[in-house]
Amino acid sequence: MTITPLMPVYPRCGVRPVRGEGAYLFGEDGQQYLDFASGIAVNALGHAHPHLTKAIAEQAATLMHVSNLYGSPQGEHLAQRLVDNTFADTVFFTNSGAEAVECAIKTARRYHFANGNPQRHTLITFDTAFHGRTLGAISATNQAKMRDGFEPLLPGFAYAKFNDLEGALALIDDNTAGFLVEPIQGEGGIRQASHEFLTGLRKACDEHGLLLVLDEVQCGYGRTGKFFAHELYGITPDIMAVAKGIGGGFPLGACLATEEAAKGMVAGTHGSTYGGNPLAMAAGEAILDVMLEDGFLENVTAMGDRLRQGLEQMIPNHDHLFDSVRGTGLMLGLKLKSDSRAFVAFARDNHNLLLVSAGENVVRILPPLVIDESHIAECIDKLSTAARVYVPAADD
Question: Which residues are catalytic?
């Protein structure tokens, strides 16, 4: 028998964390790592945040799961807080980002069905998008690396170039339900939607009776210095998928929608065994407690500006390797002139700095939202030290 007990779908590295504290992870060998990956933008409050861990422990000792056959005072309370602080009128809780995206797709289709237009089922999506790994989510991207071997995929998607408003509008026809788009593509390389692009999609939805569905699984929940990235554009979606930071490390996601957009989602149209369980709700409440405190998001913006400044000052010293900085808040990308995956591995294995690679040879820098200037200085120092000795492969 050669297959590993854990199905070998991840090319796992040699770092084997067993403990976390703040912005640091500790391996089973005792090595300390500066974690500027945050579980891929998940650990919004870092590791072992006392308010979060206390809330989870207390709820685990009280009530973890009862199923959605019963009333949910915990889910109702967290949903109301999200409604009070967002565009949304209603929330469906999930266990992951992919499930939130699936709910968003179903909500969009069901809206047109409820309006007597079942033929309006196609969502226009964008190149280099990443919406998750379910069959529905991989159908919403045209990337072969996620689709190959899984056909036939779900019909009902059309694909346009990201930031090409004219190209997206040209795809609108009698079958169009709306647009599904990330305001900032994470996996795609920290590619940020232009103001013209995102506001243009909103305008087209209003004019054609379509739905704007945002995937803010990675760019939402304080990551950009706003509660949600669409606030940077002065627009609101009709439906939005969120996850990652919403639970701070506990599995949790949500689909948010306006009352109009959710008009078709009536009893029996959707469900989840674990979605909205009391333990997840306790984690979600604790995250909101901290994130909605006065000054929290302003500090994310300030630390993001400081980190960007440090990266931009560093680039000229290593311009053989680094090209530019992209992104906003604490969702930043360092564009490389060679393979980003190789440099991420080098920084991890030789300088104990954890980062994440992305498309277009971009290194994603996604630290906990609670970092301070000392963590930023340490990150820049480790990056600079790594860059001084790093030698790209000859074929990069």
Answer: 130, 215, 244
